[in-house]
Amino acid sequence: MNNKTNCLAAIALSIFAITAQAEEIALVGSTVINPADGKVMPNATVVINGQKIENVATGKQNAAALGRQIDCAGKFILPGYIDTHVHFFQSGDLFTRPDGADLNSVRPYKDEVAWVKSHLNDVFTRYLRSGVTSVVDVGGPFWNFEVRKTANATAKAPRVAVAGPLISSVSREKLDLGDPPIVKIDTPDQAREFVRKLAEQNPDLVKIWYIVDKDHPVDAFRPIVRATIEESHAHKIRVAVHATELETARAAVEEGADVLVHSVIDKPVDDSFVKLLKDRHTILCPTLVVFERYGRTFSHQLNLTPEEKAWGNPEVIASLNVTKIPKDKLPARIRDALAKPDDALDRIKKTYHIALPNLKTLEDAGITIAAGTDAGNIGTIHGPALFREFQLMKEAGLTNMQILQCATANAAKLFGGDTGAQIGKIEKGNFADIVILRSNPLDDIAHASDIDTVIKNGAVYPADSILH
């Protein structure tokens, strides 16, 4: 075959691919739930044309004239879920954070990282199986940017927004294999230089790890926070900040943080803090599930949901049984938790005693809350952990519609950019990222995981086929 024939064949294949992708699909007879505005549309038809939603209307709307119909009678259509706080450099297994529990003698951290890199496609499919069609990775090594590139080139993967290495007030040498996920920054000038280095990779966010303890008071790191945010904003990059204490979170927002990636867990939020978030249009991601998973894993009281057991990676889940580790190789933190399991549960209870009412206060005040899990941390399972987050948000007093809004329209705002503007809603012009449920999540948020079909970018995946 000569070059001209090759060229013609390639053009023909391209035309075929475009034509196939542009097939019209009509989802007929469902109830469409649009959490963005709280509207529910019964007996609806959603028309998908290629990657986009072309029309949403009541009735069949000449669906018979379209190329393909999918009968959705008795089913419920929502925007694909968005998890706005994940970490691809972490697997969720017992060995993924040696800075928190050093088990290098059981599994060297370099082996853990190699495993993580080799299982990215597996992680992608587990998000899709959970109806999660977009995720935000809020911090990891520079190879995080390759993860985004891989996801963008993979049909069976969520959309991915990423931050690079976390700009930190503390060092984590045990995570440094030459491309560290967390980088200690000591001066404002260093911060500006590092942001410029990050900007070359076109990050969706810059992440600050604002850790405060007796050796690292709030004010000591604040000039670095200020410099990081100023430099990031100069490059038109938003900044997300890990700040779990009220005064740390307040300082971060006062300095211009766009996103707080955790709940405040040390004390109740006050009126001035609520007003500050409202005035600055700050988005908050609660990550409730992660606060229980370390303590429950280490004390051998892990409470994985049925969804996590069914759709989480079985190798990751199997690793979380700390009783399988030889006792002489257990770090003190795990030994102590096993010796006093009630203490671990008490600490979790105290955290939620603050975090859950804080979430309700912020939701009631109209703060934009975006659902996220911190998946990848020990015991927080990539993909289905989102459904445990929903349970905890329900315990906080959010309505089912509010929870769904947090995981769709609000989460899309945190995702940001051109993509964020085209996800999180079932409406004309948005990407065809859709979850079809068998039962109504407005009746019970547990139904949010009763997934029949997932549609990502117009490609239709029967839920039970995704992991096979």
Category by helix and strand content: alpha/beta
Residues in helix, %: 25-40%
What share of residues are in beta strands?
Answer: 15-25%
For the biggest sheet, the summary is:
8 strands, mixed
Tally of extended strands?
Answer: 18
List the helices and strands and how they pair.
Layout: H1 3-21, E1 24-34, E2 39-49, E3 52-58, E4 68-71, E5 76-79, E6 81-86, H2 109-118, H3 120-129, E7 132-137, H4 144-152, E8 159-162, E9 166-168, E10 182-184, H5 188-199, E11 205-209, H6 218-234, E12 238-242, H7 246-254, E13 259-260, H8 271-280, E14 283-284, H9 290-298, H10 306-311, H11 314-319, H12 332-339, H13 341-364, E15 368-369, H14 385-396, H15 400-406, H16 409-415, H17 417-420, E16 434-437, E17 451-456, E18 459-462
Parallel strand pairs: 1-4, 1-5, 6-7, 7-8, 9-10, 9-11, 11-12, 12-13, 13-14, 14-15
Antiparallel strand pairs: 1-2, 2-3, 5-16, 16-17, 17-18
Helix pairs in contact: 5-6, 6-7, 7-8, 9-13, 12-13, 13-14
